């Protein structure tokens, strides 16, 4: 995976996050994050010391636009966590409708997920990896700005992710490009015939996403199910790097999402390829009757852990006990363990 160095020729927005190696690009324009053989690069940013494991090698997360308006890193993180959590409970390889996300704590950045023009759905796996890649890109390259990312598979658009305000800023890259031209003097080509179609599609999908229906009924069912879970947290030792913990949480949710939500964890689950200093592990309580530890509960508990850390603004090793219907089903831990290939866990 590579990040292309900023190019003045591409609207000034630049930085393209690539999962493939793009060998056609001149080597002096590439900053390697992972060499093609998958070895770990020795880079200063802890978020960069990650192998991408199950992320499709032909998936590209391309930043189209970023604007001066900023928002706190914690706001982007929490909203991405809760978006990924909701998406993770569906079929990882299945389709999902356009959706808007924000939280009561952080109304902005509002996250809008839009299908490609001509389609009414996106694939969950592309959205999950797109959200993960967008967070890394903002952290590593541009800071936490109003922005839009296009998801491409083999150079074909498969969806879009916008970070902005609920009124539309950067939620759709065509419409915000036009506003950018007017307000910020950016050189943007708005003559593309897809301009009006994309803008109209964004409005249409946003309206559909906010209309009561089967998708909202399903979301309510998930909320009701999640209400059965209670989690108790305990700080358990040394201080941790905040960004290491953020990346570890997002990676854990993404890896858990690969499994069907109702799949039982019989013993221990540790996400594979945890390459920064913050590791996660979950262990199941031995039980012969339900409830059991399942990936659904792990994802929900990890999202609660994210809220717990940010609310307290204290980043330390964190242990937690998960109860379903007041029955202990498992225990988890975010803990420190130094960088190194030998720290890979098992994913199963």
Describe the structure using short key phrases.
348 residues, 8-stranded antiparallel beta sheet, alpha+beta, 5-stranded antiparallel beta sheet, disordered C terminus
What report would you give on this structure?
Helix 1 packs antiparallel against helix 2 (124-142) and helix 6 (242-257) packs antiparallel against helix 7. The protein has helices at residues 73-88, 124-142, 173-184, 194-209, 214-226, 242-257, 295-312, and strands at residues 2-4, 17-18, 30-32, 59-70, 95-97, 99-101, 110-114, 121-123, 145-153, 156-164, 229-239, 268-269, 278-284, 316-324, 327-336. It is globular and about 50 Å long. It contains seven helices and 15 strands. It has an eight-stranded antiparallel beta sheet with strand order 3-1-2-4-9-10-7-6, with helices on both faces. Strands 11-14-15-13-12 form a five-stranded antiparallel beta sheet, covered by helices on one side. A two-stranded antiparallel sheet has the order 5-8. Strand 14 (316-324) and strand 15 form a beta hairpin. By secondary structure, it is of the alpha+beta class.
Write the layout of secondary structure elements.
Elements: E1 2-4, E2 17-18, E3 30-32, E4 59-70, H1 73-88, E5 95-97, E6 99-101, E7 110-114, E8 121-123, H2 124-142, E9 145-153, E10 156-164, H3 173-184, H4 194-209, H5 214-226, E11 229-239, H6 242-257, E12 268-269, E13 278-284, H7 295-312, E14 316-324, E15 327-336
Antiparallel strand pairs: 1-2, 1-3, 2-4, 4-9, 5-8, 6-7, 7-10, 9-10, 11-14, 12-13, 13-15, 14-15
Helix pairs in contact: 1-2, 1-6, 1-7, 2-6, 6-7
């Amino acid at each position: 995976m590579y990040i292309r160095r900023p190019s003045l020729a591409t609207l000034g927005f630049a930085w393209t996050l690539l999962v493939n190696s793009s060998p056609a690009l001149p080597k002096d324009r590439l900053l390697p994050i992972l060499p093609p053989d998958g070895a770990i690069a020795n880079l200063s940013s802890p978020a960069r010391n990650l192998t991408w494991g199950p992320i499709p090698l032909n998936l590209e997360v391309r930043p189209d636009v970023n604007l001066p308006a900023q928002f706190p890193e914690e706001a982007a993180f929490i909203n991405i966590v809760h978006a990924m959590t909701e998406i993770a409970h569906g079929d990882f390889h299945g389709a999902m409708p356009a959706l808007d996300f924000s939280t009561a704590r952080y109304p902005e950045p509002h996250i809008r997920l839009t299908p490609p023009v001509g389609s009414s759905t996106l694939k969950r796996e592309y959205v999950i990896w797109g959200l993960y890649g967008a967070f890394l890109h903002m952290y590593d390259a541009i800071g936490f700005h109003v922005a839009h990312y296009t998801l491409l598979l083999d150079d074909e658009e498969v969806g879009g992710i916008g970070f902005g305000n609920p009124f539309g800023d950067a939620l759709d890259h065509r419409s915000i490009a036009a506003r950018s031209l007017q307000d910020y003097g950016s050189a943007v080509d708005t003559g593309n015939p897809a301009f009006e179609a994309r803008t109209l599609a964004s409005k249409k999908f946003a309206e559909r996403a906010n209309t009561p229906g089967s998708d909202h009924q399903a979301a309510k069912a998930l909320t009701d199910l999640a209400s059965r879970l209670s989690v108790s947290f305990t700080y358990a030792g040394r201080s941790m790097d905040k960004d290491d913990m953020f990346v570890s949480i997002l990676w854990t949710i993404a890896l858990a999402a690969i499994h069907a939500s109702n799949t039982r964890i019989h013993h221990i689950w540790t996400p594979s390829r945890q390459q920064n200093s913050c590791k996660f592990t979950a262990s199941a309580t031995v039980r012969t009757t339900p409830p059991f530890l399942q990936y659904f509960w792990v994802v929900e508990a990890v999202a609660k852990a994210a809220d717990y850390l940010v609310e307290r603004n204290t980043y330390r090793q964190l242990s937690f006990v998960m109860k379903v219907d007041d029955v202990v089903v498992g225990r988890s831990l975010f803990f420190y363990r130094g960088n190194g290939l030998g720290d890979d866990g098992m994913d199963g």
